Here is the input.
Amino acid sequence: MANRKIAGVVVASLMLLGGCNESATVSTTSDPGAPMILVLAPNHQPPIPDFPVPIGFKLDEKVSRDYALAGARLVDHIYKGSENKLAVKRFYERQMPINRWTLTTAMFVQGDVMLDFEKENERCRVMITDGGFWGGTKIKVRLWTSAPLTVISPQ
Here is the structure.
């Protein structure tokens, strides 16, 4: 009984000290004996509404840009965080279809992950790389509107 009271006090203390912030990760598995799989949660207010960003990743404003003009857009963003590259890959494989993006290419080359998505007349490339000297993970996003092909008929 005393152990339950102590555990309750510890949990309540952690909640008070930690606040009610969203968790960046959730571990899931259907088999209790299987290793836990890290699942990242999306930020509820990403800079680009239809492009999800994992909680804990911050936009690097000094090197990022985006434009919207006459129905076309270009997004060139870099996000930095500390989560595992493969967890970030799984995040985009799960979250992009929720935002109507279709995965067209997935590659793992020399330690970097490249994912290509498309939606209607837009394309998106997500590069997941090491964060560099300071460690962590970097997400490079390139999203652009692709012009529809116009067929010119010979006259």
